[in-house]
Fold this sequence. Notes:
The protein is an alpha+beta fold. The protein has 3 domains: 7-117, Acyl-CoA dehydrogenase/oxidase, N-terminal domain (Butyryl-Coa Dehydrogenase, subunit A, domain 1, Orthogonal Bundle); 135-233, Beta Barrel (Butyryl-CoA Dehydrogenase, subunit A, domain 2); 237-381, Butyryl-CoA Dehydrogenase, subunit A, domain 3. The chain has 11 helices and 9 strands. The chain has helices spanning 7-34, 41-47, 66-79, 81-94, 97-102, 105-117, 235-271, 283-311, 317-341, 352-361, 370-381; strands at 141-145, 148-159, 166-172, 186-192, 198-202, 213-224, 228-229, 273-274, 277-278. The chain has a 4-stranded antiparallel β-sheet, covered by helices on one side. The longest helix has 37 residues, at 235-271. The structure holds flavin-adenine dinucleotide. Flavin-adenine dinucleotide (FAD) binds at residues 90, 123-127, 132-133, 157-159, 205, 208, 213, 362, 365-366, 369, 371-372.
Amino acid sequence: xxxxxxxxxxxxxxxxxxxxxxxxxxxxxxxxxxxxxxxxxxxxxxxxxxxxxxxxxxxxxxxxxxxxxxxxxxxxxxxxxxxxxxxxxxxxxxxxxxxxxxxxxxxxxxxxxxxxxxxxxxxxxxxxxxxxxxxxxxxxxxxxxxxxxxxxxxxxxxxxxxxxxxxxxxxxxxxxxxxxxxxxxxxxxxxxxxxxxxxxxxxxxxxxxxxxxxxxxxxxxxxxxxxxxxxxxxxxxxxxxxxxxxxxxxxxxxxxxxxxxxxxxxxxxxxxxxxxxxxxxxxxxxxxxxxxxxxxxxxxxxxxxxxxxxxxxxxxxxxxxxxxxxxxxxxxxxxxxxxxxxxxxxxxxxxxxxxxxxxxxxxxxxxxxxxxxxxxxxxxxxx
Length: 383
Ligand SMILES: Cc1cc2nc3c(=O)[nH]c(=O)nc-3n(C[C@H](O)[C@H](O)[C@H](O)COP(=O)(O)OP(=O)(O)OC[C@H]3O[C@@H](n4cnc5c(N)ncnc54)[C@H](O)[C@@H]3O)c2cc1C
């Protein structure tokens, strides 16, 4: 058993760490203040080969393994979860994974190649206002008309939805009344921004402010039938495959945020003096710091293990859901402790821990709430 990163992975980690610190850190304050995603990062990261790194070289990717992608995700999230979410989770993950796995060559040339270059930005449309955890209850419907699909419906909480150039939209291509088994009849179809009948409305939220979120509306949007990903009716399995990889990425996201919080609180607890000694030296606080260090270590180890299983092509839905629920839930207490150790300063906007705390909350909601991941683990365990 070998727990060490390869030399290439270590070099890559240092490169992406330097990039995040030098190119992303200076953008954070304005992006958070204005609640906008710094779009200039997409082509910049594309040029450096940091978008879609797991995708085939022939489309501009690096054919990197999932472990290497987790290194990238951890380093980006350590600096800013909002920006990391926009470029890695949504664009390089949710928005393009099904396209890479199941899309036709024409679709890949039209959407995947520019996405990896960062010249077209992706989002992913699954959730609806009345269909969240129960995504199958979606109402969005695509009906064939001539050589097009005509799509009607709406999508809720769509990350990158305000500015994306395209997104796979999950919708029923079969009349829901004709569907015999729950989950059948759903397809993923790529929709482009600017299509007549397509509109987006930006949502205000409490964290991840540099990762824009929107509600989308589709009124008789015409989309060429060639924009169907894979075969009609296979949308649900494509979504589940996308989420499996995404849930491992959430282990890496949690590790990045937890490591950032630990690094900050480690310094602060040694500098902040009360009752004549650094607060880190009070045993109750020492134990909190130790617990944080242990939890960061377990998060990273669990994430790499799930990523390794994924890379071997082994069944890892259980491990993906386990790491998603454990890492994102453990992160919540870790963040509360990190904020508490800052005393009143932890509640002040000028201290980065306040942003990390707000950002961390989103991680146990998106890509399946903790409850949905518990249920998936329970199913896998035969409970
Ligand atoms: C900032 C943000 C960004 C997002 N980005 C995207 C995106 O890019 N694309 C996209 O498609 N979606 C996106 N989402 C949607 C996200 O995936 C959903 O919010 C999530 O799946 C939960 O759905 P819901 O909000 O409707 O909650 P609900 O499903 O209404 O759940 C409410 C509560 O009930 C619980 N619950 C529901 N069913 C059960 C059950 N059977 N047993 C026990 N508990 C249950 C849930 O765990 C939760 O605690 C985003 C959400 C947010 C907040």
